[in-house]
Every structure is written in C-alpha cells, then in structure tokens.
Amino acid sequence: MSLDSALPVADDLAPATDSAVLKRAYSCFPSGVVAVACRIDGPDGTSALVGMAASAFTTVSLDPPLVSLCVQNTSTTWPRLRSAPAIGVSVFSRDQSDLCRQLAGPSDARFTGITPSGTDDGSVFIPDAAAALSCSLHNEIPAGDHTLVLLRIEALRCDPGVEPLVFHASTFRSLEALRERS
C-alpha cells in the first residue's frame, strides 16, 4: 500500500502512564478465564487444594504444547502452585461465572461447595469445564508487575461443544457465533 498523502493525525491517544486508561484499553481484548489448581500433599499425610482464577490466559505453542498465564507479582497463591509437580488448568464454561468469582476470592473459601477431580500427580480440575489441561511448569518470565508463566501441557481433555466463559470490558460474557451473510 502506498500513501499518496499524509495520514490523519491520531491526536486522541492517551499516555500509557495513565493506569486507568491502560486498564480500560486492556479490557477491550476478550480473554478466556481459567482455574489454575493443584493438590499439595503435606508431610503429615494431609492434603490441601490450592487454586486461583486467571483471565490473562492464552495458547502459545503446539510443539512443545504450551499455554501461558500472567500472575500478579503480589499473588500469595502462585508461589504455592509453582512448586507443585502438576498443575491443573480448567477452562471455565459460560455458566461458571460465580465459580470463577469464588476462585478469585478469599483463599480459604475457594473450593467450598466444589467437588473437583484430579490426577495422581496433583492436578486439580473444576467440574463441567470446557477443557482440562494437566500441566507442568515450563518457564517463568518477569514482566513488569506480573510474571508470565509458561505451562507445558502433559495431558488434556476438551469438549469444543461447551461454550467458554469470556472476560471482556471487566465483565463476564459468552461467545456468540456470527452468522455468515448470504
């Protein structure tokens, strides 16, 4: 494409240092919402469920099979999850917004009333999720006030027929298929 004349000036841009405007801009991009959870076995034979909700989740690579999520550096949950041999990632289904809020709430009540499933090595999955990924920690990359976490998928199950929960403009939404124009 060649430009025969100058482009119009985009004089309505705000500085990226305005955190309120930056958050609003980030909210324009929809993302899937996941539960990240594991079972941690204690030395006394007891075990505990540890988990959180994450909205900055995306697929990364087929070979090796990688997904990513961003974790706030102030998280007190991630340090417990990161040391687990296996971490479960559950893609919330469209009707699980209350469950997502619960897993984003106080850590002592995150699994109240939930009967999760799990693997022998400690991955934990929420019921009725659109997909369940059993992962191991692949890498962590410092990224400002967050850490970019790369998880390697070791095993999975999925049901593309289950509608996912979507986070957009600071609210939960569901997908709608666009009809093709005839």
Automatic annotation (TrEMBL):
<feature type="domain" description="Flavin reductase like">
    <location>
        <begin position="26"/>
        <end position="174"/>
    </location>
</feature>
<dbReference type="InterPro" id="IPR002563">
    <property type="entry name" value="Flavin_Rdtase-like_dom"/>
</dbReference>
<dbReference type="Pfam" id="PF01613">
    <property type="entry name" value="Flavin_Reduct"/>
</dbReference>
<keyword id="KW-0560">Oxidoreductase</keyword>
<comment type="similarity">
    <text>Belongs to the non-flavoprotein flavin reductase family.</text>
</comment>
<dbReference type="GO" id="GO:0036382">
    <property type="term" value="F:flavin reductase (NADH) activity"/>
</dbReference>
<protein>
    <submittedName>
        <fullName>NADH-dependent flavin reductase</fullName>
        <ecNumber>1.5.1.36</ecNumber>
    </submittedName>
</protein>
<dbReference type="GO" id="GO:0042602">
    <property type="term" value="F:riboflavin reductase (NADPH) activity"/>
</dbReference>
<dbReference type="GO" id="GO:0010181">
    <property type="term" value="F:FMN binding"/>
</dbReference>
<dbReference type="InterPro" id="IPR050268">
    <property type="entry name" value="NADH-dep_flavin_reductase"/>
</dbReference>
<dbReference type="InterPro" id="IPR012349">
    <property type="entry name" value="Split_barrel_FMN-bd"/>
</dbReference>
